[in-house]
Amino acid sequence: MNSIRIAIQGGPASFHDAAARQLHHDHLIETVPCTTFRSLSTALAGGAVDAAVMAIENTLAGSLLPNYSLLQEHHLHVTAEAWLPIDQNLMALPGQKLEDIRTVLSHPVALAQCSNFFLQHPHLQAQEAHDTADSAKAIQEQQLKGVAAIAGAAAAALYNLEVLEANVADSTNNFTRFLLLQREKTEIPATADKAILLFRKPLHTSTLTLLLSLLQKHQVEVKLLQTLPSTDARGFLVMELEAADLLQLQEAIAQVKPLVEKMQVLGPLQKAALPTTANTRQHKAILPTA
């Protein structure tokens, strides 16, 4: 059986690696490490891999809005999603103690999730790296003393590092949502109840008001409505819709399409259930200013 090549941000034992295996649990896969989300998107769009997995939301940090822009730019399609628990641990070479550590390496999002830990230990200097697990790998390969990494327990096991402090994130309710991406459209699952829409920001706020009113009338929930980062004064919006079933979702998309310009539909897909122990941020449908 041939393996499926899946681009991930980071390397072995990263959270993206774990998400890829969860989303493709019934297939033999080969993960292809990428240092950035842009290089991940380029690898998939250019045909270097069969699929990709990309983080899109964290219950502590919120939505990764620039990643929606990458999906739009590279015309990628979302076929599934999954929530993954994120266990952030401080790890270093065996024999090192917390008081020996001066520098902590990790991905900027992971560092942000552990801000309280750094406030409690002011002698620690955070240093950004492109990945959590690869930070652990660098410590092991270069035998870096006085340096620790924040990463998942799987990285400590893989690279033979000692966990100095477990669960150093600001909250134990730390979950990240990952998207499974394809280059081409695939068959829409009958169980689909969610869609991600990207469209040009309407010139008038009244258009958005009408749009939201129509969706409410059709009992479709707007889970996310935000402006994407852009140098364009008008820019684009991202909207995530959830419905009772595929038919209701398709009717909702049909309501939106005539009211907006340059709409892209990512999906539809089946919504992933957020673990019951997590308290995700509630995204309100706030009307962006015109």
Structural features, described:
- It holds the Pfam family PDT.
- This is prephenate dehydratase.
- Its EC number is 4.2.1.51.
- Residues 5-183 form the Prephenate dehydratase domain.
- This protein has helices at 15-23, 37-45, 65-74, 108-113, 115-120, 132-142, 153-158, 205-217, 246-256, and strands at 4-9, 29-34, 51-58, 62-63, 77-85, 89-92, 103-106, 125-128, 147-151, 162-165, 175-182, 194-200, 221-227, 236-242, 261-269.
- By secondary structure, the protein is an alpha/beta fold.
- It folds into 3 domains: 4-86 and 174-182, Periplasmic binding protein-like II (D-Maltodextrin-Binding Protein, domain 2, 3-Layer(aba) Sandwich); 89-165, D-Maltodextrin-Binding Protein, domain 2; 194-269, ACT domain (Alpha-Beta Plaits, 2-Layer Sandwich).
- β1, α1 (15-23) and β2 (29-34) form a beta-alpha-beta unit.
- The chain is elongated, with a radius of gyration of 20 Å.
- 39% of the residues are buried.
- Residues 279-287 have low confidence and may be disordered.
Short account of what is shown:
The chain has 290 residues and is of the alpha/beta class.
Give the key terms.
290 residues, D-Maltodextrin-Binding Protein, domain 2, Alpha-Beta Plaits, 3 domains, 6-stranded mixed β-sheet, 5-stranded mixed β-sheet, 31% strand, prephenate dehydratase activity, Chor_mutase/pphenate_deHydtase, amino-acid biosynthesis
List the topology elements.
Blueprint: E1 4-9, H1 15-23, E2 29-34, H2 37-45, E3 51-58, E4 62-63, H3 65-74, E5 77-85, E6 89-92, E7 103-106, H4 108-113, H5 115-120, E8 125-128, H6 132-142, E9 147-151, H7 153-158, E10 162-165, E11 175-182, E12 194-200, H8 205-217, E13 221-227, E14 236-242, H9 246-256, E15 261-269
Parallel strand pairs: 1-2, 1-3, 7-8, 7-9
Antiparallel strand pairs: 3-4, 3-11, 5-11, 6-9, 6-10, 12-14, 12-15, 13-14
Helix pairs in contact: 2-3
